[in-house]
Design brief:
This protein is α+β, with helices and mostly antiparallel strands and about 140 residues long. The strands form 2 sheets. It has a 6-stranded antiparallel β-sheet, with helices on both faces. A two-stranded antiparallel sheet has the order 2-6. Strand 7 and strand 8 form a beta hairpin. The chain has a single domain, classed as Transcriptional regulator MraZ domain (Chemotaxis protein chec).
Length: about 140
């Protein structure tokens, strides 16, 4: 299962080692794309098929659906892991997520998220401060 938080670095050749714990589940290739809140998402090929099928079935008559489809699908890149479990992060994705050297990789069950370390810390602190309000809102969803 893809869970947990791991600190890693992007090397000078733009390579990022994915946590060893996840490599068996991820396989030889992953899909990396732009994601919400300015991070990147990493999907297995199987999970990407599920997500991309949902995206392409959005109503194309709505501008927001078209924009979201373009952002997610045009931003996606199939990337092979090297023998050491590293991926090469394309420049356009690195720029989108404002990734510098230090990153945090978060396992979120069906995907990984890659965050710039400073951006993650800011996001996490804000979310932690609002956790009581978030929990009360999610209570209506049965969580």
């Amino acid at each position: 299962m893809l869970i947990g938080q791991y600190e890693h670095t992007i090397d000078s050749k733009k390579r990022l080692a994915l946590p060893a714990k996840f490599r068996g589940e991820l396989g030889d290739k992953v899909i990396v794309t732009r994601w919400m809140e300015g991070c990147l998402a990493v999907f297995t090929e199987k999970e990407w098929k599920i997500v991309s099928d949902k995206i392409v079935n959005l109503t194309m008559t709505q501008a927001e659906a078209r924009s979201f489809t373009r952002m997610m699908l045009a931003g996606a890149m199939e990337i092979s892991l090297d023998k050491l479990g590293r991926i090469l992060v394309p420049d356009y994705l690195k720029e989108y997520a404002d990734l510098k050297k230090n990153v945090v990789i978060c396992g979120l069950s069906n995907r990984l998220e890659i965050w710039d370390s400073a951006k993650w810390e800011t996001y996490k602190q804000k979310a932690e401060k609002g956790v009581d309000e978030i929990v009360s809102k999610l209570g209506g969803l049965g969580i």
